[in-house]
Structure formats: structure tokens, C-alpha cells
């Protein structure tokens, strides 16, 4: 099988990813990369500064960093995030 037959560009995920945009993001489950706890985003502590930092409620590790810059929003995710939506 030729390499071109095994992949397409990221546009192939448009349908799957657009289904994820219609949910309440605070209900997303996150598994901490440090302590392994599973908690919804709503349980995390948010620290405000130049951006916003979410920290694990169990071990205080950084879960997410969100900042506005250059007319857009930058998001850094740490750990494993699980979204459950009805399709």
C-alpha cells in the first residue's frame, strides 16, 4: 500500500471534531498525567493571570493553560481528556 493510501490531511476529521464542539466543556473528563485521578473540568481550580491556568484538584498539577494572544486563543492541554457526546 502506498503511503498516500494510508492518510489524508486533517480535514478528514472535520465531522468528528465538529460533533465535539456542541457540548458543555466543563463536563469533559480529564485523567491527570501525574496522579491518575479522573475528574471533570468543573472540578479543577482556575487561576487567573495573563491567561488562565487550570490545576488538578487532587495533586495541583497543571491541567490546561488558556491565553488570548494575537487575535486568537491558545490552549495547552496536559493529561488525557475524554469527551462523551451522543452521535
Amino acid at each position: 500500500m502506498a503511503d498516500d493510501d494510508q492518510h489524508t490531511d486533517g480535514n478528514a476529521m472535520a465531522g468528528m471534531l465538529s460533533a465535539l464542539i456542541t457540548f458543555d466543556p466543563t463536563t469533559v473528563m480529564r485523567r491527570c498525567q501525574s496522579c491518575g485521578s479522573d475528574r471533570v473540568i468543573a472540578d479543577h481550580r482556575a487561576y487567573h493571570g495573563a491567561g488562565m491556568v487550570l490545576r488538578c484538584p487532587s495533586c495541583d498539577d497543571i491541567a490546561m493553560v488558556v491565553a488570548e494572544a494575537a487575535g486568537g486563543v491558545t490552549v495547552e492541554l496536559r493529561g488525557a481528556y475524554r469527551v462523551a457526546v451522543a452521535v
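The chain has a mean pLDDT of 85. The first strand starts at residue 29 and ends at 31.
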